[in-house]
Amino acid sequence: MFTLHIGPAFEALIDWLTDNFSGVFDLIRKVLMSGITGLEDILLFLPSLILIVIFALVAWKIAGRGVAAFTLLGFLLIVGMELWPQTMKTLALVMASALIALVIGIPLGIWAARNDMVEKFVRPVLDFMQTMPAFVYLIPAVLFFKLGKVPGAVATVIFSMPPAVRLTNLGIRQVPEDVVEAAKSFGSTPRQLLYKVQLPIATPTILAGVNQTIMLALSMVVISAMIGAGGLGSEVLKGITQLKIGLGFESGIAVVILAMILDRITQALGGTKSK
Amino acid sequence: MPKIEVKNIYKIFGSRPKSIFPHLEKGMSKDEILEKTGHTVGINSASFQVEEGETFVIMGLSGSGKSTLIRCLNRLIEPTAGEVLIDGENILEASHQELLRMRQKKMAMVFQRFALFPHRTIVTNVEYGLEIQGVEDQIRREKAYEVLEMVGLKGYEESMPDQLSGGMQQRVGLARALATDPDVLLMDEAFSALDPLIKKEMQDELLELQAKMHKTIIFITHDLDEALKLGDRIAVMKDGKIVQIGTPEEILTDPANAYVKEFVQDVDRTKIITAATIMRKPDAVMAPKEGPRVAVRKMEEAGISSIYVTGKDKYLKGLVRIEDAVRLAKEGKDNLEEVIIKDIPTTAPDTPMVDLLPVAATTSYPIVVVDEDNKMLGIIVRVSVISGIIGRGD
Ligand SMILES: Nc1ncnc2c1ncn2[C@@H]1O[C@H](COP(=O)(O)OP(=O)(O)OP(=O)(O)O)[C@@H](O)[C@H]1O
Ligand SMILES: [Mg+2]
User: Fold this and answer.
1) What are the tens digits of pLDDT across the range B73-95?
2) Distance CA B209, CA B215 (A)
3) Are residues B259 and B281 in the same domain?
């Protein structure tokens, strides 16, 4: 019967890329590695109790008393479950990946908002990225960056970037046409239009994108642990593979606590800005 | 030199706009072109001139191309062909830098839905034009306070746009446009979104401001009343073409074609035009104690043959004809009282035009509009115009 495999072609492409761009990949690898471990070192250098107080204060400042109390109690529970170092490692990986996703995603979203051709091209790519099962991103990540935190971060960046692009694009395009016309009619340069009018008005929507990106990055924790990214994800995996139900449950709870804290804080960021 | 001169501009929306010119030359209609080619004719060879200090009204039904035309003047929409000269400079050939400079210094726009910046306070909205020009904080803040006071919004400087009513928001829109001291104001249905009463208030205020500022104003509306009230001249548009340009009187008494006629009628039936709407200031007024020589001189200056005499608080006394004033002066008499004609037609400001017709038909003097205390508010001279419009209605 008829067979057609596109897999070998893909393999050939990957081979060609690794052969010809190994220098580039090495560089990316080094930069990412030092970024993530640097962040980890900072988070693990301070005694956990001091750091928890700092986190709670930040939560208070941004999201109010309730979230601050939850942060305090949640993190104390994590310390009590002896999962603090793993949690901080996960936090470092998530923060680094989300940051990279935002640094790439937001400018891309701005570009797409200001250029219909770019949007036409970006939109199907984003759709593709979001419908692809997250596991699939592990393949190129492992091929280019071997095992460990770096490929974990790379897969996380790819997986969590779409909402940042999408919502930045949407937020800017939602600025009413006549408001844009008003800004132009006074002789704004494209830059002034962007920074003084479009971005400020789009900020709540962009921050919703930031929130979603961070949440998606966090949802990759267990998956990226499968290629050795470490942190809470490996504890969950251990729980599954070694049937340590208690450990699996505890580390699952830790992920949820981290997710809720990050979610509330970033949501509050959007809320206060729009007021 | 006219302040603004528009020569044969075209705007065709679609993927290959230039390919439509041959169709237009053959005289194909906007609908045919849309059906055959999928292109929309926004503007079809519009030309007009606007003098400095003039208020030029563009009127037409929805979709006739008014918004497109006004946006061609500051290139918010890029015309497909033609010329737009502002102070003799062709803005369509201006570089990006020059265009920005002209938008910053020469013209400002007021929008139908106000288009205020929702994230900025009232005062920073008004400052916007100066801010992007890099004007110092202190100076632009002073200017913004000044124009806000001018439009009656003192005290609202730190409010946000969504805290203000529609009428107030549009005052901010106007203040924002005035803050950069532009020569030209582009107003796209600026008052259409407002309640009738607020709308009238804004019109009066614009007239008042305009009497002081002498800007060149392009004002778009689909409201005949508004056009008559504000316009020195009116252009009527249909399907992207300007079908008639003229003074309000010309448009009313001598519509160029059935479209204009219908436009004029249509609005007529639905709106009741009152004496207050069409009255205007008398050319000259005097007090009785000023005497016959002053009367003669004032009439000569204004080029008129009779003058109104009013007492304290503009209380209407009557009218003096030039021949009577000259006779008194020759006889060396000082007291005007004996020659004041008291039997002149008057009317209340809210009298509908229909009721003015019989009065207009039986008098040779203008009709004086007075309030209940017989205070003179204005005069209605163009009685022939009035009879013209109403006569057409039925
Ligand atoms: N960006 C655009 N693309 C395609 N067609 C357009 C575009 N803008 C306007 N048009 C068309 O051009 C014509 C003129 O539109 P325009 O908005 O200038 O009319 P208008 O006289 O201002 O109407 P209204 O009173 O409803 O504001 C209409 O047929 C409209 O559909
Ligand atoms: Mg319009």
Assistant:
1) 999 999 999 999 999 999 999 99
2) 9
3) no
